[in-house]
Every structure is written in C-alpha cells, then in structure tokens.
Amino acid sequence: MDVELVSIGDELLLGFTIDTNAATFARQAAAVGIRVVRRATVGDGAEEIAAAVRAGIERTGAVITSGGLGPTADDLTKASIAALFGRGMTLDEGILESLRARWKARWSRELPEANRAQAMIPEGAAILPNGHGSAPGIWLEDAQGRWVAMLPGVPREFRGMLADVLLPTMIERMGDEAGLRVVRSRTLRTTGIAESAVADLLQGIDRSALRASLAYLPGWEGVDLRLTVRNASPEEADARLDAAAAQVRAPLAEWIYGEGDDDLAEVVVRALRESGRTIAVAESCTGGMLGMRLTAMAGASHAVMGGVIAYDNAVKVRELGVRESTLAEHGAVSVETAREMAAGIRTRFGVDVGVSITGIAGPGGGTPEKPVGTVCIGLDVGGSVSAQRIVTIGDRHEIRQRSAQAALAKLLRGLGTADSAAG
C-alpha cells in the first residue's frame, strides 16, 4: 500500500515545532509493508490543506493528515477535507457527550463552547477513537475507495492512535498483502570515533554481500550506522539485517555501544549495576550534565551516589583535593587536573568509580595551546587512575554535550564492559 502524509500547522512551517509524527508513521508503516511515497507540510489555511490533500488523493488514493483537529479557529482540517469530498459538516451528539463527560471528570467544569467544534464531523465519515486525548480521528472515503485518515497533531495522541486504530485499520484493508514485503532498518550506535574513521574501518566490507543499504548518521552522540533492507519478507529482512549487522560490528566492536534508541548513559548505569559498583562525578565545564544524564536513567539510584560541580578552581581544591601546584603548573584544563578530580571525588564519596570532566566550552577562553573545545576526562576505577584529552567541536552547548558523551564512553570502556554491552 502506498500512502501520502500531510502534516498541518504554521508552527511546523515556521520551525517552532519539529514534525516527529511524520517520522514515527514512516518507520512503523514501513515495518508492516506500507510505503510512504510523499510527505508534505502545509500551513493552517483551508486552501493549503485542501490543495495538498487533493494532490495526494489523485496520486495514491490514500492520505493521512496530522494536525488541525483542535477547537480553535485555526483548526480547519476537517471542514477543508469535507469540502474536497463534497460533504457538509454535522454535529455528532455521541462525541459531544463524550467531550462533556471528559471535561466534567477531569476539570470539574462545563465544556467550553469552543470545544463543540471537535464534535463537528464530515457527513458520512467514520470515527477513529482517540483514547489519548479529546479530538477524535476521522476516516473519510469516497465511492472510488479513495480515503483520508485525519489524526490529531499532538505527538502523544498521534502515536497512540497510530498503534490503537490507524495501523490495524490499514493492515485490515491490505488483507493478504499485509506484511508480505516490508522495509526494515537496524541502527548500530557508535561513539568516540569520527565518521571518516568509521568509513575507513568499513572499507573492507563487500557492499554487495552486505545485502542491505548502509547510511552514516553523525551527531553529537556519535555516528549512527543505519542498515536498511527493502522489499523483502519480514523473515528475510530480519535475517539479512542480522548478517549485515554482524559484518559491520566486526571492525567496529570497540566503538559500538548499542542499537536503535539505546542511550549510552543507560548502558553505563546497567553496567554499573550488574558489576555492583557505585559512582560519583566531578564536573567543571559540563556543570552537572553528566550527572543529569546518569540520574535520568531508571535504576540510577542503585549506582550513582552524587557529585560535585567544581566550576571554580577553589572548589576543585577544597572539595576534590586537587593540588594548587597542579593547577598552577598545568592549569584547570589538563589531564593532571582531571586525574586528581576523579581520584578526589572517588575518595570523598567512598565509591568504586570516580569520573571527572574539565574543559573549555567557549565561546571565549581558548588559547593556541588549548583551543575552545579542549576537554580533559579523568577516571578512577578502584584506585586505578587514567585521563585523556580530546578536542570537541560545536557551539558551547554542543561541546558540553559531546564532553558528557565522551566521559560516558571512557567510563564504559574503563569498566571493561564495552564488548558485552555492545553485544
């Protein structure tokens, strides 16, 4: 089945809101053999909406819209598409009563008059129940079997209705063809290695034998490697992805920490818990970002004991035991200082592992010897202390993000669990 997706909203065109719904639908649809052949984004104007949907209907006969189903004056999706199909609008008393009950139960007040618009439905349309919000979805179909499915734009509601209603409905329409030929992907996540270096390590792979396309997706977390198999049965797609992933993993095992949406902080917390170790962090330029990422993970309280934001040198000396002579001779941004920060935090908190970050996040403060982006990371695992210096790129926020990610990577390798976590 080929479909088109139309995302609606001025906020999308202006860049104030990122369209995550389109990506969510495309991924999930491909996995069951539904192909998104075109995606469009339009503003809230009735003519814009109608033009985009009309073009999609003429090309594929199947269009999904996201957004414009709310109660405000700029929510024109239903009326625009109803007119396109030559249908009027009618009040659905069942939806209206459901809205009234929802407002009474949740906010102990009467339904605002504006929300009555959410109960206005195109004539002859089928209702797609929304168990995640107030605006119902709508399925509108003409005599030729061409259809439009209208879903709310709120991502939580869109995702919920996609799983609950829309995908099952589309799969049912596909009948015996559902899931016969799919598009499936697998993402291997690397960190601490540049895109060009990844490409060099993968030069020896026979791309024809890989039987999957390979895309490089660099970002501040690292380089993701996306393997994709198209137009295959689910079983064949999975087998080809397994084989391709194994080929890619072989030369990159040291750098791969997970798959899909795996977060390096989650991998580290899991490794700490499985080894029964505790950790404390000492941060300067990242200002608590490393601690935030670790404690955002479920189960962190079993491993993460605390930390110190040692932004000023006096705090490094007083709270972490960094020697003034070290700061005077090597500076705050040095492997020597990073080592003493890591050892100091481990000793002070009485934990198994201490990790530290000190650097120059910019935009000022750099020198020819230590340019902006210079970061030193220290690690103390049971008294065995090491440190490294890296130079990261980006603006101040990106440098801090990359620094925390680099510290997590060093920590994972220092724990001796990189291979098992990646496997």
Commentary on this structure:
This protein has 16 helices and 17 strands. The strands form four sheets. It has a six-stranded mixed β-sheet, sandwiched between helices. The chain folds into three domains: 2-177, 3-Layer(aba) Sandwich (Molybdenum Cofactor Biosythetic Enzyme, Chain A), CATH 3.40.980.10; 182-259, 2-Layer Sandwich (Alpha-Beta Plaits), CATH 3.30.70; 272-422, Maf protein, CATH 3.90.950.20. With 423 residues, the chain is an alpha/beta fold. Helices cover 42% and strands 25% of the residues. The protein is elongated, with a radius of gyration of 27 Å.
Short description:
By secondary structure, the protein is of the alpha/beta class. It folds into three domains: 176 residues, MoaB/Mog-like domain (Molybdenum Cofactor Biosythetic Enzyme, Chain A, 3-Layer(aba) Sandwich); 78 residues, Alpha-Beta Plaits; 151 residues, CinA-like (Maf protein, Alpha-Beta Complex), CATH 3.90.950.20. 42% of the residues lie in helices and 25% in strands.
Rg calculated over all Cα atoms: 27 Å
Query: Strand order of the main beta sheet, please?
Result: 2-1-3-8-7-6
Separate helix tally: 16
Q: Low-confidence runs (pLDDT<50, min 5 residues)?
A: 417-423
CATH class of the largest domain: Alpha Beta
> Helix share of residues?
40-55%
CATH-scheme architecture of the largest domain: 3-Layer(aba) Sandwich
Number of domains: 3
